[in-house]
Amino acid sequence: MSAHVVSRPDVKSAVSALAGLSEDRMAQLSRATEHLDPPFAVVDLDAFDANAAELARRAEGRATIRLASKSVRSRDLITRAAERQGYHGILAFTLPEALWLAEEHADVVIGYPTADRTALKRLAADERAASRITLMVDSVGQLDFIDEVVGSSRPDIRLCIDLDASLELAGGRLHLGPYRSPVHTPQQAASLARAIVGRAGFTLVGVMSYEGQIAGLGDNQPGSPLKRLAVRAMQRLSARELADRRAAAVAAVAPLEFVNGGGTGSIEQTSSEDVITEIGAGSGLYGPGLFDHYRRFRPRPSAYYVMSVVRRPATRIATVLGGGWIASGPPGNDRLPTLSWPQGLRMNPREGAGEVQTPVLGAAAEGLRLGDHVWFRHAKAGELCERVNVLHLVSGSQIVEQVPTYRGEGHAFL
After folding, report:
1. Series of mean pLDDT values for 10-residue runs along the chain (414 residues)
2. Cα 51 to Cα 54: distance, rounded to the nearest angstrom
3. Of 177, 254, 372, 395, whose Cβ has the fewest other Cβ atoms within 10 Å?
4. 167 near 237, Cβ under 8 Å?
5. Dihedral sign from CA coordinates of 280, 230, 332, 221
6. d(Cα 79, Cα 98) in Å, to the nearest integer?
7. What's the longest Cα–Cα distance across the chain?
8. Where does 6-113 have alpha helices with state H?
9. Nearest Cα to 76, choosing from 106, 46, 41, 101?
């Protein structure tokens, strides 16, 4: 079945324009995949490669990119990006994922502490894996847990300290940023470092800190201008405070192999700090909806999912099957998918993107017929891959390859 391609240059989508979508490119992607039956996912390989180059360029040679695998969730695309100039190592989500990726990649840091007993036993029994994988810790209790699970007759386990990067004001009564590590001050970092260094079976190799209130929060959100100004002021204050505190913490625990910071949204700022050796980033490869509202950069959207029109309840309404692939995080409109093609579509605010159906409205909906394709972008990057087994890679005007997602290879590292 061939999907009907609707092109209405007179009808523009404000959301699509904001996201930097090219109408000609979207029409080309649509034609390349019109023979496929939804639901399916597409990666615009030309945009993906351009974004990969741009992430490295933004670091300006001051730091390398450690690829955040959870933002990609396809081994083929992880390898495609990680082997580029300016990239070094993987930032994994879980220890089981790291064990899997370490079969092919020699430097895998886990971004979060683990309590997976089975995976820890696998790590301790595999000298090669232990030399390639670095665990994240933020307390002595985690050292106790590891020793309790795997004992002392094992290879040394490489460790990285997670330094809290949030902004705390009013003596800590106001916390701005993700609640991550309890290690906030240089003194706390030094204390944990001494405990690691003085304990057999562990080697301290790095410090990581993720400033989610900067890297993960767009500074050009729609809505109140005052709110945008407040976000920008908070981010400037937080960046100054963190740069000083991070430098002091690194000095207190040196020597180290690496110091990791930042994210897709703060590469330029974080890489300018003298102590930073690498940036953990990956979402910018796909350019999901949450990255439409940054002033400093705008990745090219490269990852999409596609659904079919299955009914026409009214002249200016078309209903697609499914579509409600909502992103994690605090509930809000920014967690909804973005309608990308045909341009000029919008969701019914009373239904939004639904589990079983998503009505789309607007003048562009009038031209949609049963079986036509409607293109969406997920609000977050890697979560798209938890819904599909295969990514169809399009370069130029044709599908050049189909690669499996983690799910397609039988894995869900959650």
Report:
1. 34 37 90 96 97 94 96 97 96 98 98 97 97 98 97 94 91 86 96 97 96 81 84 86 95 96 90 95 94 86 97 94 93 91 93 95 93 96 96 96 97 87
2. 5
3. 254
4. yes
5. negative
6. 14
7. 72
8. 14-18, 23-32, 45-58, 75-82, 95-101
9. 101
Handedness of CA 385, 390, 396, 397 (dihedral sign): negative
Query: Which distant-in-sequence residues (6+ apart) come within 8 Å of 388 by Cβ?
Result: 39, 40, 41, 305, 405, 407, 408
Which string of b and e fits 342-354 if b means at least 16 CB within 10 Å?
A: bbbbebeeeeebb
pTM of structure: 0.90
d(CA 264, CA 68): 10
Pairing of strands 202-209, 167-169: unpaired
- Tell which residue, 106, 114, 122, has the closest CA to residue 66: 106
CA separation for the pair 70, 92 (Å, rounded): 6
> Are 295 and 221 contacting, i.e. CB atoms less than 8 angstroms apart?
no
Counting Cα atoms < 13 Å in the Cβ hemisphere of 256 gives 25
Strand partners, 162: 208
Cα separation, 282 vs 54, in Å, equals 12
Q: Specify the long-range contacts of residues 198-204, CB closer than 8 Å, at least 24 apart.
A: 199/143, 200/152, 201/147, 201/152, 201/154, 201/156, 201/157, 202/143, 202/146, 202/156, 202/157, 202/159, 203/156, 203/157, 203/158, 203/159, 204/159, 204/160, 204/161, 204/253, 204/256
Collect all residues with Cβ–Cβ distance below 8 Å to 146 and sequence separation of at least 6: 120, 135, 157, 202
In angstroms, the CA 167 to CA 161 distance is 18
Q: How far apart are CA 245 and CA 292, in angstroms?
A: 30
